[in-house]
Specification:
Order of helices and strands: EHEHEHHEHEHEEH
Strand order of the largest sheet: 3-2-1-4-5-6-7
Structural class: alpha/beta
Number of strands: 7
Shape: globular
CATH topology: Rossmann fold
CATH superfamily: Formyl transferase, N-terminal domain
Strand content: 15-25%
Number of domains: 1
Helix content: 25-40%
CATH architecture: 3-Layer(aba) Sandwich
Mean pLDDT: 95
CATH class: Alpha Beta
């Protein structure tokens, strides 16, 4: 049984979708969710799905072996689902090609530090892009520069706002992220 640990910083809708996808899976399951935000919505979603969700301080991730040691016990694969902190090099080295992130744009466009959530969708609108989408990629030492696993696109209409663009992108995330995680886990197991 492959164990998935999810990192989430926000409301947890993608984490919940992933948990539900793997709930009755024969070969993989979400074993734990970790969050660096004490009051993140992901805690309530995990409670409803009966999945353990733990809060950690940034220092536990960046300045100690605390999170790395926990991951070595609990994870075969790591999924970032709306997680905003940079993953430290010691974790990346311990889990090569086993940390997956989703980004709400078509990388390499609109990636990097500070490019998350509505910031991305505002930039897409301001630059009059005709399409946007999602990129699912491996995590490396640089924000949003790991090897691309999968991309899906959606059209951006002139009448779209950053909020309507976000809604279109969320639909792509919910549709594709769990399936691509599953395929990737068994391809790189």
């Amino acid at each position: 049984m492959k164990r998935i640990v999810i990192f989430a910083s926000g409301s947890g809708t993608n984490a919940e979708n992933i948990i539900r996808h793997f709930k009755n899976h024969k070969s993989a399951r979400v074993s734990l969710v970790l969050s660096n935000k004490e009051n993140a919505g992901v805690f309530e979603r995990c409670k409803n799905e009966q999945i353990s969700c733990l809060y950690f301080k940034k220092a536990d991730l960046t300045n100690s072996e605390t999170i790395l040691n926990l991951l070595k016990k609990e994870a075969d694969f790591i999924v970032l689902a709306g997680f905003l902190l940079k993953v430290p090099e010691n974790i990346i080295q311990a889990f090569p090609n086993k940390i997956i992130n989703i980004h709400p744009a078509l990388l390499p466009k609109y990636g990097g530090k500070g490019m998350y959530g509505i910031n991305v969708h505002k930039a897409v609108k301001e630059n009059s892009e005709s399409q946007t989408g999602i990129t699912i990629h491996f995590v490396n030492e640089h924000y949003d520069e790991g090897g691309i696993i999968f991309q899906a696109t959606t059209l951006v209409e002139e009448t779209d706002t950053p909020a309507t663009i976000a809604a279109k992108v969320h639909e792509l995330e919910y549709e594709h992220f769990p399936r691509v995680i599953e395929e990737t886990i068994f391809k790189y197991a």
